Each structure stands twice: as structure tokens, then as C-alpha cells.
Amino acid sequence: MTRLELEHVTKRFDGPSGDIVAVNDLSLEVDDGDFLVLLGPSGCGKTTTLRMIGGLEEPTEGDVTFDGVRVNDVKARNRDVAMVFQDFALYPHMTVGENLGFGLKREDNGLAENEIDERVAEVAEMLEIGDLLDKKPSSLSGGQKQRVALGRAIVREPRLFLFDEPLANLDAQLRKTMRTEIDELQSRMGITSAYVTHNQEEAMTIADEIAILNDGTLQQHDTPARIFNSPNNLFVAQFVGSPDMNIFDGTMTEEGERYRVEFAGRSFHVPRDLFEDVAEDVSDVTIGFRPQDLFREASTEGRQGHAGPVIDSEIRVIEPLGTDAIVHAEIDEGTLTSTLTRFHEIDEGDAATFTIAPEHIYVFERDTERLIK
Ligand code: ATP
After folding, report:
1. Is the ipTM of this complex over 0.90?
2. What CATH code is carried by the domain that includes residue 269?
3. pLDDT confidence of 301, banded at 50, 70, 90?
């Protein structure tokens, strides 16, 4: 097992119009056996970070350490990490069995031929690909190829697993099955892992901890629950959760022991102590609330919590998803999105009144986009 650390790591590339800062002063620690997911939009620096951990890319500044030992100068093949890629990267001329055993045969690990065969058989059984050992990759389905790629990583029992969008080429159903399997395998083997994805749902289900990157800069490194419930800033809040968070411009004024917050022509009060440190002169804010936290007044659904702002609207679009529906409603200042279970009670064109408990409303400083409540 290995404790992984990145210390002030920056990576610059030469671009056609100057420097590209792919990763900017990134510091992260991942404990022994933990599963880190690097999450963020396309181009935010996830793959570059993973490649620096694996030794395929050298940091321009800063250090990568395994168990406190700097590995910047250690070549990829000597880092004892196993990587699984989106395109599987299997050797086409080798059978599945040979693909699985190749890494072990190449290494100077003192294993005899029959011990390697045993290990390959064990892993093949674990991944339920025992009957494919004599086949060539070209005759396998996408899911089977990805199992072989996983098997090749597992068979070596490396210090670290590194995954780069390993499920991106699989269909939706298979992605779900495989992500559960990867999660189970990783916790059973207890091998420290870093996993790149831009898919927030995948990140939430598989990760012990998530690092969200934007423009090469770390936005938040936290448990999935804290990323969802206590986003550091507007970027994180908008990047996680589905459907997207409702966002409105608002203002905030002090009123004795509480703040009065206004948005979309409505106002509500929040006790001072619910706010983190607020700069003296903050008055322009951005208000956010999740579609799951918005309730229809007439309904008894979710009517716990304090009285919040009441918002009259007109239902525009109802998108049924089975047990619930995504409902878009129009107000003068924009559109409200909510997820409702009792959507059969309403129709497109109906007037509808929504409410939201103040404790479910996020307030961000408009300028810095930092969360203040
Ligand atoms: P994606 O999800 O699209 O794969 P990513 O978050 O993994 O994106 P990176 O591939 O790490 O992002 O790229 C980060 C930035 O660095 C991008 O602007 C990219 O164009 C740039 N970049 C990456 N590799 C190189 C390279 N070898 N040379 C020049 N620029 C590069």
C-alpha cells in the first residue's frame, strides 16, 4: 500500500501562443488504500495529473511522492504502478492469457512460469474471464476487453492503480456494472487508486474522495458527500448534482442578528451564525438551490424545515423519468427547475407555487464565487 502526495505540482506545456498551464500548483494527499477520483471538465488537467503520478509526464515544478519518497526522477516502469486506459491498450497479437501474464513475465519478480500461470488463472476467475484465456482481443466485446485490461493491472498487485476514463467506451449499462466491480476490487485489494473521469455520477459512486479541478486549479478535495452538500464555490456547486442547480443573482443586507437575502423579488432571513466569514462589504451575492430541494407549496412533499421564500410560477415543461419528473417552471426572472415525485397532479401551463427551506439555499459571494452559506 502506498500513500500518494502531490506537493505544489505545476505542469506547463509549450502551446502555439505561449505557455499552457495544464496543472497549476496542485497539492493533494491520498492515504494508503484510498480511492481518489480526479473530476472536472474537459481540458482541466486531470489526465496530465494522472500521467505525472504514473511517470509519463514530468512536473515542471513541485514533487510527486510515494510514501514520502520523491519519485519525480523515477521512470514509469520503475514506479510499480498499473494503468488502465479508455482504449484498453491490449496487445493484439497476444491471447488474453498472454496479455494478462505479460507484465509478470517481463518483471524481475522471481516468479516461476507455473506461479505466473496460477496467478493469471486466479485473476481471470476473479473477473469471470476464465473461458476467454485462449482468445485474441479482436474477438472480444468492449466489456470483455476492459475486463482483460483490468486483469492486467490487478495481476501485478502494484503499489498504485491509475485509471484514465476506463469506462468511457462502454455502454451505459456496462459502465454501471463495471464501476461497481472496480469499486469492489479496489476495496478488496486495498490498493491506493487515482481515477480520472468527467462524469460526476461515476465519481460520486466510486470515490472515497474527489478532487475537482478547473483550469488546472484544485477547487475542492473532499468526500463525495461534502462535495455535494458543502461545495467550496459556485463552480463545484454547479459541476455536481443533476439536474443543474438553480442560480439567481441576489443581494444581502445586515438586519441586526440576521441577514436579509433577496433574490428574484423574494426575500428571506438567515441567522448570522449560518454564514461563514463574510467580508464587511458583501452585498452582491449569487443564490443557488438544488432542484431536489424545491417543493410545490400545495403538496405535502418535503414540507419540513423553516418557512422560506414562496415563488409563483407557470409550469412550462414536465420531463417524466419514471418515478419522478424534472419540472421546469417560468418566473419573471428566469426558469426554476425542480424534481417532483407527484408530477401527475400538474400539467404544462398550470400555475404553481414553489417554496424552499432557507437551510437548503446556498449563498455565494458574487465577485469571488466563494460559498458564504
Ligand atoms: P479531457 O477530459 O478532455 O481528457 P483533461 O482534464 O484530462 O481533459 P488534460 O488532457 O490534462 O485535461 O489537458 C490539460 C490542458 O493541457 C489542456 O489545455 C491540453 O490541451 C493541454 N495539454 C495536455 N497535454 C499536452 C501536450 N502534450 N502538449 C501541449 N498541451 C497539452
Report:
1. yes
2. 2.40.50.140
3. very low
* Among the listed residues 51, 55, 54, 44, the one whose alpha carbon sits nearest the alpha carbon of residue 22: 44
**Alpha-carbon span 41 to 214, nearest angstrom:** 7
Regarding whether 120 and 40 lie in a shared domain, the answer is yes
Share of the chain above pLDDT 70, in %: 97
Q: ω into residue 243 within 30 of 0, thus cis?
A: yes
pTM: 0.91
Residues with CB under 6 A from ligand 1: 13, 15, 20, 22, 40, 42-48, 198
What confidence tens digit (pLDDT) does each residue in 155-166 have? 988 999 999 999
- Protein residue with least CA distance to atom 7, ligand 1: 47
Q: Does residue 47 sit in the same domain as residue 191? A: yes
Taking each helix axis from N to C end, the angle separating 96-106 and 113-126, rounded to the nearest 10 degrees, works out to: 130
Distance 202 CA to ligand 1 centre (A): 21
**Tell me, what amino acid is at 92?**
P
Cα–ligand 1 centroid distance for 21 (angstroms): 9
